[in-house]
């Protein structure tokens, strides 16, 4: 299998290297062959080429079996009014790969419950899979700007809503058979289209229970009854906000992976944390989010479920027994955590 | 002073009556005269007149000194595809009154910390005032719908951003001199206009510290460091989501008030809870959110700061010692809580 790596900025290269080491060990252990090709994206790409997603990077990603990304951005490129910005590379890549379904699983490891801002009793049995629409909505709609006025258009077609919704229902079938669709149908036209499309699609999945929730209520319910949710599907911007809110429950952003999937194209895998410029280059970043992203890569792009589960089990073991990086209350560095995971594949 | 009451639907009439009883006691105690005029809004207005905001209601509100609203909506009118819906009345009222600044204070009463999903240590010193832009953005932008496609336009002018921002900075001067502005400037054009306008306005308030935060990060930071925030200002839809998220921290929605203010026009005051159809008519709704909204009415529309503080102190006392309604772990009814607050004004 051909994997493109896009280490990106800040701690991106460190955590990506750790994830690749784990993929290598898995390949060796289970007898697979993975090849890697590294490319530029984000701030480092702007510095080297003037563009946040150089053509060479995009072409490599398009023909790869999967893409493993670190993180993009940093203080050097953080002016939101600059004409060229790191996150444009990420948005362009999502669009070009057509990865419309962003999967963000959330579980709270019992050993780490003390780190969560939420009370322990709320965290029991929390196991949510967010499915965020990733290539539509206000992110990709028309924008205008004059001295006096700015506009953003949020646009959705039935086809866009239908494909991501079907993905959510399919995923629910492999889980607890429940889908919560989040919108703002009492105010937004796109949300009314969203809701009626989800409702129609649901008829094809009579074995899956569907409920609708307004985004403002959902922001509250994620805190008051997080264990109620199984699969949560929502549009791009609501998903951006709700998944970050939910991520806070896990105790550290450094723990969480994501997968962005399209239709028979290369999947894009990245930890949900950012480039963390304050700790970049120090060897202390938590590699768990990146390593679990590699597990999702094996599952969703390479069909290697057994290998994915093996990585997840190894990570769970390390979270249980240590070593732990600083973000989760330990003293260990990135390499020590990587090595502890690697033990499972010796 | 002329106060228009809009009890609305569900528990709205019950909690509004309790708040009016407190206003009456304050008037008697401090020697003021308040007159009340009751009008229809929401589902009950649709049933009676076919419209969610009848002209008579709107005219009365426009010429009042202040408007006290209960709640709108309920299962009977909950189809988001219906041509006439209760929340349209609320949105039309906000627009017609020009109440562009929605103030939502959040404090967590120590006696109720056990009810919060957040750990106790996170709740210490939480005292946030959200200032949500209320008459612009995607709520009031152009919408289109065909069989296949829907759009919502989010639009902001510099003037719209500037007036709500100035209100936030002014309010920060009476508090801890800190403003956090929330946007999504790395993606949205309206957010870039928002951010540069806030930045410019801030120059007129050198005594107030300003920070910018992206909405996704903010959804997380509200949980990990809630006591960090003083005044938080943001656009309409982000404010809708973040204030509901924050409200979950208080332990019950029934506790929280809001004020919506414009330029020299009647302010609109309402508890942030909804119509709570499941408990409507049972006399068990928590009247605290409505009573604290009445206190905000005295402060912001009638200039009666001393009286507002007296209500807030009386409520704090009842939260400390009981009686408590069911939502906060007690057994008391609406009237018992009202009466306990009234004791302070005998
Ligand atoms: C970097 C930014 C553009 C991005 C987004 O808003 O999608 C990030 O927050 C994410 O969630 O992956
Ligand atoms: C009822 C609804 C239209 C309203 C809103 O979204 O503004 C409510 O959620 C609120 O926050 O007051």
Automatic annotation (TrEMBL), chains A, B:
The keyword Ribosomal protein does not apply. Binds 1 Mg(2+) or Mn(2+) ion per subunit. InterPro entries: IsoCit/isopropylmalate_DH_CS, IsoPropMal-DH-like_dom, Isopropylmalate_DH. NAD(+) binds at residues 74-87, 274-286. Mg(2+) binds at residues 216, 240, 244. The keyword Metal-binding applies. One of its GO terms (molecular function) is 3-isopropylmalate dehydrogenase activity. Its EC number is 1.1.1.85. The record marks 139, 184 as: Important for catalysis. Substrate binds at residues 94, 104, 132, 216. Its cofactor is Mn(2+); Mg(2+). Pathway: Amino-acid biosynthesis; L-leucine biosynthesis; L-leucine from 3-methyl-2-oxobutanoate: step 3/4. SMART domains: Iso_dh. Keywords: Amino-acid biosynthesis, Branched-chain amino acid biosynthesis, Cytoplasm, Leucine biosynthesis, Magnesium, Manganese, Metal-binding, NAD, Oxidoreductase. It is found in: Cytoplasm. Residues 2-341 form the Isopropylmalate dehydrogenase-like domain. Signal peptide: none annotated. Belongs to the isocitrate and isopropylmalate dehydrogenases family. LeuB type 1 subfamily. Catalyzes the oxidation of 3-carboxy-2-hydroxy-4-methylpentanoate (3-isopropylmalate) to 3-carboxy-4-methyl-2-oxopentanoate. The product decarboxylates to 4-methyl-2 oxopentanoate. This is 3-isopropylmalate dehydrogenase. It comes from Dyella koreensis. The lineage of its organism: Bacteria, Pseudomonadati, Pseudomonadota, Gammaproteobacteria, Lysobacterales. The gene is leuB.
């Amino acid at each position: 299998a051909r994997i493109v790596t896009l280490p990106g900025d800040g701690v991106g290269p460190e955590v990506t290297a750790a994830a690749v080491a784990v993929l290598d060990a898995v390949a060796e252990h289970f007898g697979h062959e993975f090849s890697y090709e590294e490319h530029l994206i984000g701030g480092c790409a702007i510095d080297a080429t003037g563009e946040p997603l150089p053509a060479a990077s995009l072409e490599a990603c398009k023909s790869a079996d999967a893409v493993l990304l670190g993180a993009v951005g940093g203080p050097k490129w953080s002016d939101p009014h600059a004409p060229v910005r790191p996150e444009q590379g990420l948005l362009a890549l999502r669009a070009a790969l057509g990865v419309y379904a962003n999967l963000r699983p959330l579980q709270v490891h019992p050993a780490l419950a003390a780190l969560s801002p939420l009370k322990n009793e709320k965290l029991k049995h929390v196991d949510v899979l967010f499915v965020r629409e990733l290539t539509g909505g206000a992110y990709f709609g028309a924008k205008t700007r004059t001295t006096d006025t700015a506009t953003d258009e949020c646009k959705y077609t039935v086809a866009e809503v239908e494909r991501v919704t079907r993905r959510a229902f399919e995923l629910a079938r492999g889980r607890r058979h429940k889908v919560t669709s989040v919108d703002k149908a009492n105010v937004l036209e796109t949300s009314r289209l969203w809701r009626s499309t989800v409702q129609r699609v649901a008829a094809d999945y009579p074995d899956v229970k569907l409920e609708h929730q307004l985004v403002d209520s959902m922001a509250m319910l994620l805190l008051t009854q997080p264990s109620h949710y199984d699969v949560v599907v929502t549009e791009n911007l609501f998903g951006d906000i709700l998944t970050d809110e939910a991520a806070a429950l896990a105790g550290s952003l450094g723990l969480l992976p994501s997968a962005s999937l399209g239709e028979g194209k290369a999947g894009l895998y990245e930890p949900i944390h950012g480039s963390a410029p304050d700790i970049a280059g120090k060897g202390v970043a938590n590699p768990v989010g990146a390593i679990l992203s590699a597990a999702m890569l094996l599952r969703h792009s390479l069909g290697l479920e057994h290998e994915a589960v093996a990585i997840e089990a190894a990570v769970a073991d390390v979270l249980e027994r240590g070593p732990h990086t600083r973000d989760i209350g330990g003293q260990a560095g990135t390499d020590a955590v990587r090595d502890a995971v690697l033990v499972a594949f010796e």
